[in-house]
Amino acid sequence: MGMDFSTLRSLITRYCVGEETWVDSRTIYIGHKAPPPGTEAFIQQRYPDNRITSSKYTFWNFVPKNMFEQFRRVANFYFLIIFLVQLIIDTPTSPVTSGLPLFFVITVTAIKQGYEDWLRHKADNSINKCPVHVVDNGRVTRKQSRNLRVGDVVFVKEDETFPCDLVLLSTSRPDGTCFVTTASLDGESSHKTYYAVQDTKAYITEEEVDSIHATIECEQPQPDLYKFVGRIHVYMDSEPVSRPLGSENLLLRGATLKNTEHIYAVVIYTGMETKMALNYQSKSQKRSAVEKSMNSYLVVYLFILISKALVNTLLKYAWQAAPERDEPWFNQRTEAERQRHIVIRAFTDFLAFMVLFNYIIPVSMYVTVEMQKFLGSYFLMWDDDMLDPELGERAVVNTSDLNEELGQVEYVFTDKTGTLTENNMEFIECCIGGSVYVPHAICNGQVMSGAGMDMIDTSPGPSARDQEELFFRALCLCHTVQVKEEETVDGIKLGIHQGKSTSFYISSSPDEVALVEGMKKLGFTYLRLKDSHMEILNRNDEIERFELLEVLTFDSVRRRMSVIVRAASGELFLFCKGADSSIFPRVVSGKKDEVKARVERNAVEGLRTLCVAYRRLSAQQYAEVCGLLSEARLALQDRDKRLADAYDRIETELILLGATAVEDRLQEKAADTIESLHKAGMKVWVLTGDKMETATATCYASKLFRRTTVILELTTKRTEEQSLHDVLFDLSRTVLRPDLSSDLGEFSDFGLIIDGATLSAVLRPEESNCGNYKDIFLEICRNCSAVLCCRMAPLQKAQIVKLIKMSKEHPITLAIGDGANDVSMILEAHVGIGIMGKEGRQAVRNSDYALPKFKHLKKLLLVHGHYYYIRISQLVQYFFYKNVVFMFPQFLYQFFCGFSQQPLYDTTYLTLYNISFTSLPILAYSLLEQHISTDILKKDPSLYRDIGRNCLLRWPTFVYWTLLGVYEAVVMFFGAYFLFDNTTFTSNGQMFGNWTFGTLVFTVLVFTVTFKLALDTHYWTWINHFVIWGSLLFYVVFSLLWGGIIWPFLNYQRMYYVFMQMLASGPAWLSIILLTTACLVPDVAKSVLWRALWPSTTEKIQLADRLYQGHLADFTPLTSLRSGLEQDQHSRWQQEDQHSRPTWCGPCASALPRTSP
């Protein structure tokens, strides 16, 4: 057979599967009109209606769906099994003891989730029932938004929001354009220009629009807001006319019409298929290190529970093996029960013991943790220090699940423009050939009076005058800036100055506005775009008109943009501006060396530079350009790639005109914030798309790099001189050389600079035998305190974050940025933070936390993060500890009751222990505790190191808390046992029964765990006092009521008068005091001994703060505390009089006034 297999495969694909071009496209009939006969088959497709559904549940599926989701949690499912076991078999405790706490947890969570979903339903209904105007049979009618269908023609007025995704057909403006703000989509308040279809823009009335006969072919819905590919076929009297459709023709749902009286547009995507709805997709669930520790502890306690049940089951049957110890007669076992197989009996007893000891698993801990995270997040949002008066914005918490992760950050990845810098561009200078032009001043975007220009170096001669004016014209024409004559805000008209209307420049890029305003300072003013003609006012106050023929838009890959214009003389020009790396390779003439030198000098000073070039086109060349662009734009498949290829072919043989320099200043306190992060032990990486020189200058200005920093370069320039393998090994030897400390100081400080191209080579899978470059690169990065990655694409930013996140140490990463290009790394990092900047709100919407300014990151991590971690780690350890103390006496009790599964505590105590008696004190502690004052944490960032690497939830700490719980349980049980042995306690000589014994142990238990928390509390407020002493009082009052009244709804009341009988006994009171003290003394002694012999930095600070009566941060250099605190303390005590020195106890000292976050 001679047929090629590729040909056969393409034929099979075409005739059996269908052309790929048509698989991912849809056909829309405008106005639901069938095309003319003979064109194509009229197949009315079915599309979803225009309902938006952001809710999770419906009335019918709420209960089953919510229950399914809740019981997917291991703890909930475990308690459900225990509850079912209690219902099925004869167990020692009532099913209420497990069912009530579980019911409480499930109900509270369901109510919270149901209420949140009801709010979502309410918001959905308000949107879906919103009225919209539709053109129907030549008239404008109204219908609800949810009833819109694909193919409807809608009529939208100024300041109305688009109800779905639309293709623009015509507008009230004669040039067929309209202005739109997309603030609800990406946060950008600037006005963007959209264009009507060329062949339909003349249809401006309802009747004319209704007469349009056309179909649209476009891609299926996809979430990219900035991409749309399609074409429209307009059926005229003759052959149908086909026009390309792109993102400039697509109006997105949620955007608002501005500065345009009205528009007509056809519905393309509806409901959940709109681009805005497709971007609702939930982010991947992030889990904190604390949550992972909780799950690990839960598994350990589950094994302890199973072991307890297994041991008791084995011991029971070993004890009953003797004939005299068989089941006693009063158990009233039937013969059938006695004759059951021993395996079945043993398994039943095992389950009964599991039920008896199941409270060692703290189900209420999950509810308390959720409440602590939710309520604790409000402290962050209420913090006045994180309010930006300029923006009027506070910090925003998008998810409270990661609060404690803010105290564990090891790597900070930050964007540069708009994050470290203000993204407020100021035109500094321009260089044309060898001449440099500096305008007098541009202040906040306003043109100062009497402005002219200063010329540095030599003035251009007459021959260079034309080049100079051509440069100014290029910058006045090569942009996408819009001119607004006046702006109305809250009814007040802006832009009227001394009775004359002045113009405002609006653009999605602050750089473009700065450049156009700079040209205005230098004598060339861009006036407007009218009827496809751009008008500029030259130095002689003459208006020049240029017909705008084509715009080759900017993209992050090309890093340049171009326009093709026709001058009044008929000459055709292509003006191009872009990054030096994308312009210089395309230049064939011009003063390249002089301009390049100036660009490099400006970049070193931290200025943002652009190069400007041009090319004259002949009529034939322009015709070829039009053909290339038309062919690429009409393609439905791979349109972006074809356009990029066309742009590359067009933007060649350029003549260099000059370069510009724009300054983007550092944000306030950005340098101080980075310095504090370094002192806190965090490694800061800057990931930016800027050129290396500009980014390096910013890093020095922000103190990311210091004068003593040894800069290592891993750039394309160096890899061109050496192989990548050699460069990596050279850098590796440099940072790992053993004699380095003697050469560069004891603590060597390295900084690494890498560019995007080299990073791609490093991350590329290596095919040779040179090994994996990623491991060497990671080893170099670990030994660098700061890393600068320049010329980075958005995807590369996420790759860098993922590379560090997945390294063998698994460090906690934080990414912070302000633009859409930062979203990928924000989603990838453990903690994502968005800055409310000028590049839109996409970063804010996709982040876990949002901050007004970069400087607020300091307090977010060093204070709030520190507190969050300390509080929740104590909460987790305390919950497991108090449940060990609770259940271990029950385990010991089985040795004294013949392993009969007799409970030690009353059913009510079992149920309410975690819900009522001990829940509020730890919740208040986890919300309010401040072991060190806010001012000290801000002043000494190194304290952040003391809580790093999840140190408070490591296994040794967990084992200590568990052993402490076992010790206290042993003391309580055996202390009460031996005190009661052969002793009468009541006045009438009666012995205490088993319920009195259990109640005594339980009373000591409640007082012990509550006092333990009180001793650990450093920061006392009235809330702490209320919940701690109030919980103890509530326990006593409840026990008196529960045992002092005969409750008619109870079948039996074994606790009647038990608590009052116990309190009537003097020895019982003494036992409670002695046993509580005996339980607490070892832990207190250990803490005192450790503080005296091996104090941590935190404990040193606490002691010093106590000596200075809570005002340590006001006048003490904290760095001295690390080395000489002991000597300073000793001398201070000797100098002060014995009677005058402060003798604060722990609670009193920590009760001194401090500022709560």
From TrEMBL:
UniProt-annotated binding residues for Mg(2+): D415, T417, D818, D822
One Pfam family it belongs to: E1-E2_ATPase
The keyword Transcription is annotated on this UniProt entry: no
Domain P-type ATPase N-terminal: 44-98
Reaction catalysis annotation: ATP + H2O + phospholipidSide 1 = ADP + phosphate + phospholipidSide 2; a 1,2-diacyl-sn-glycero-3-phospho-L-serine(out) + ATP + H2O = a 1,2-diacyl-sn-glycero-3-phospho-L-serine(in) + ADP + phosphate + H(+); a 1,2-diacyl-sn-glycero-3-phosphoethanolamine(out) + ATP + H2O = a 1,2-diacyl-sn-glycero-3-phosphoethanolamine(in) + ADP + phosphate + H(+)
Subcellular location(s) of the protein: Cell membrane; Early endosome; Endoplasmic reticulum membrane; Membrane
Residues involved in ATP binding: D415, K416, T417, E512, F554, K577, R608, T688, G689, D690, R791, K797, N821, D822
Cofactor(s) for this UniProt protein: Mg(2+)
EC code(s) of this entry: 7.6.2.1
Active site annotation, chain numbering: D415
Keyword vocabulary terms for this entry: ATP-binding, Cell membrane, Endoplasmic reticulum, Endosome, Lipid transport, Magnesium, Membrane, Metal-binding, Nucleotide-binding, Phosphoprotein, Translocase, Transmembrane, Transmembrane helix, Transport
GO biological process, alphabetically ordered: phospholipid translocation; positive regulation of myotube differentiation
Self-association state and partner proteins as the record states: Component of a P4-ATPase flippase complex which consists of a catalytic alpha subunit ATP11A and an accessory beta subunit TMEM30A.
UniProt-recorded name of the protein: Phospholipid-transporting ATPase
Organism: Knipowitschia caucasica
